[in-house]
Amino acid sequence: MKMKKETRKADRIPAIAIGTDSSFVADLRKCAGKTDLDLVLEFEIPFRELTRVQMEKVHQASPRLAFIDLDDDPHTGCKVARYLMEANPGMRIAAAGTEISSEVLVEAMRSGVSEYLKKPLSQPMFEEAIDRMSRTAPAGPPRNGKSDGKILLFFGAKGGAGTTTVATNFAIQLRRQTSARVLLLDLDLTLGEIELYLGVEPRYGIVDLARNLHRLDEDLLGSYITNHSTGVDVLAAPFDPDEGRGIGAGEIDKILAFLRGVYDYVVVDASNSLDERAIAGLRVADEILVVAQVDVPSLRNIQRARRVLKRVAPERPLRLVINRFHPAGEITLEDVERALGLDAFCTLSNDYASVLYSINTGEPLVMNVPSICEREFSGLVGKITGVEAAESKQPWASRLRTWKRRSARSPLPPSALESVVEDGVQPRTSNGPTQLIGAEG
Known about the structure:
Layout: E1 2-5, E2 13-18, H1 22-32, E3 37-44, H2 52-61, E4 65-69, H3 74-87, E5 92-97, H4 102-110, E6 113-118, H5 123-136, E7 150-156, H6 163-178, E8 182-186, H7 194-198, H8 206-210, H9 218-224, E9 226-227, E10 233-235, H10 249-260, E11 265-269, H11 276-284, E12 287-292, H12 296-312, E13 318-325, H13 333-340, E14 344-349, H14 352-361, H15 365-368, H16 372-385, H17 396-409, H18 415-418
Parallel strand pairs: 2-3, 2-4, 4-5, 5-6, 7-11, 7-12, 8-10, 8-11, 12-13, 13-14
Antiparallel strand pairs: 1-3, 9-10
Helix pairs in contact: 3-4, 6-16, 10-11, 14-17
C-alpha cells in the first residue's frame, strides 16, 4: 500500500487523488502543478483497501476537490465517491478512466461525481474541468453572527397563480437591485419546482440540511445550497416527494432562524399549501405576499387563508400581488379591493407566452425580458426594500422584440426537456450514513 502526503502550500486549493494507476497520479500531479491546485493526499491503492483512518485523514485535510480513477474497480469507486460526498458535502469529485461505459457514468453521476476526465490527462482538458467544478461549487455565506435578515414569504391563493414565477423573478431582481445576499428557499417539499424555473441542478437541498441540523454551521450550509448565475443562492426541495414528508414545523423554524442570521433576505416560495411547514414560515415572515389572479376562486381562497394568517401572524399586514393582471378583465381591480377590503400592493402584467417559454427553458423573465416585466418586479423590490433600480443603459424595446421573436420561433433546447425524462434525472444523494468498503486501520 502506498500513500503519499504532501504539505499544503499557502493560498492553493487542496485536492486528493485515489487510484492504482501510478501514471495517472503522475499526470495529475504534473497538471495540478501548473494550476492553483495542491495535491495534499495521494492514495495509490485499490478502493477496497481504503480504511476509515485514511478517510479521517481526508476529512482533516478538508480538500475541495477529489480525483478518482475508476479503471480498476468502477462500482466500488462509485461507492467511495458517494462516501466522500456524504462526509464532505462541499467537495467536488472528478472521475477518470480510459473507457467508461454509460452505465458506470450514470452510477458515478448519481454518486456525486460532477466531471469525467479521459485518460491520459491533458493540461487543457484538466484546466477546463477545474474551471467548471469551481463555477458550480456552492457559495458559502459570508455573514457571521447577524440575525437581522428579512424573511419574505410568497404564498399562492390557488394552484397555478404563478407563485414560483413571482418568487424566483423577485429574488433575482432583489439581488440585482440591492447587491444583498439573497437566498431563495423552496418550501413546497412535495412538488417544488424552483430548480426548473432557474435551470439549476442541485445535488443537495433543504431535506439534507434538515437531517443535519444538529451540526449546522455556516460552512456546512454552504454545502447544501446551489448558486445561481445571478448570485442568488438556492435551497431546493427534494426531487422525491416522499423525502419531504418527515420534515416538520420544528425543523423549518430552526432552518429559517439560522438562515435569517446568514442572509440579508430569505425569499420563501410556499406555493399554495397551508401545511405545517408553510404555517411555520408564516409565523416568522417579515413580509407575507399573497400571489393571486383576478378570478373568483382566488378571491375566495384569500378570504379563507386570511383566517389562518390572522391567527398565526396577526401583527403582519398581507401584501396582495395581482399576477397576470389585465385591465379589461371581467373583474376590475376595484372589485378585488372592495371584495377583500385590501388594497393591491402590486400588479404584474399578463404575458403568458413569455412566462411559459421562461419556465420551459429555465431562463427567468427578468434576465431576458427587460420591459414591463422587469420594471414591475423592480417596483415591487423598491416597495419592499426602499431601494430603487438603476436605469438600464440598453433600450428595453429592442431587447423585448428579440425575446419575443426567440420565444415565438425557437424550439426548446434539449436541456430544457432532459430534467423530465426519467433516465436524465439525477437523484440527489442522501446525506445519511454509508458503510465504507474496507477494514478499520
